[in-house]
Amino acid sequence: MENSDQMKDLVKQKYSEIALQDKETNLASCCGAGGCSTEVYNIMADDYTTLEGYNPEADLGLGCGLPTQFAKIKAGDTVIDLGSGAGNDCFVARKEAGEDGRVIGIDFTPAMIEKAKANTQKLGLSNVEFRLGDIEHLPISSQMADVIVSNCVLNLVPNKDQVFKEMYRVLKPGGHFSISDVVLIGELPEALRNTAEMYAGCVAGAIQKETYLELIRANGFANLTLQKEKAIQIPDDILSNYLDAAGLEQWKAGGTGIFSITVYAEKPAACGCGPEGC
């Protein structure tokens, strides 16, 4: 991966393909990036089926957590979903926000926006909308959102610091976020780090866990809480596409970990609290 524009083009291409795939195909891959496993592995996704508002047609099996379950959404809230895909988290959030709430999904893949809008029409929801846009430059007014959610998306974004700045900008003072994402403890092997398919698969774009959490703190958020953490096990038949036998053994013995985390933080209610104030 050479630069941020190439990374974005790769993600847009892959997720345009994913929008046309069924859930089973996506679950057989690394975050839906392609059918790279010889068996069906639910590698990262959590089970949404018990959550109210769940819609099977909007669930592409691309997440790595259940951020809406932890997001403390209240009736009447305005909720923004970063990287909304086919609308799965938006429809769960809408159930929590109710008739008086508002949910806005942002995605930069036109095929995903089209699919999400079609799902919204089928459900007959008037207070859920989807906007085409880059989450590094959100098409959202400042201080508009009560809650932000995101599921396995920031790891795909080259400039994660800019995304946290945008999140801070669009949240109301006292607003908060709950996001699920993939992070690392230890370094990925170079063969994985430099592979485009693994970047689109949410792994090669992940950063160190402590670096990720420090970005949140550095952008003015408070009350940072790790709501959930789980290890991600990538099957050998996927890893062997990128690592030889020796490299595979070294990976297993090296103490490196890939984790899904769900993290919560708040924009302080008092002004003058962030890097650019309120």
What this model shows, in words?
The protein is of the alpha/beta class. The protein has one domain: 3-Layer(aba) Sandwich (Rossmann fold), CATH 3.40.50. It is 33% helix and 22% strand. The chain has 11 helices and 8 strands. Helix 4 links the parallel strand 1 and strand 2.
Global outline: globular
Q: Name the helicity range.
A: 25-40%
- Major β-sheet annotation: 8 strands, mixed
State the secondary-structure class. alpha/beta
Uncertain spans = 26-42
Query: How big a fraction of the residues is strand?
Result: 15-25%
CATH architecture descriptor? 3-Layer(aba) Sandwich
Compute the number of strand runs.
Answer: 8
Number of domains: 1
Cα separation of the termini: 36 Å
**Number of helical regions:** 11
What is the element string, with H for helices and E for strands?
Answer: HHHEHEHEEHEHHEHEHHE
The fold-level CATH name is Rossmann fold
Mean pLDDT: 82
- Radius of gyration (CA) equals 18 Å
The CATH class: Alpha Beta
Can you identify the CATH superfamily? Vaccinia Virus protein VP39
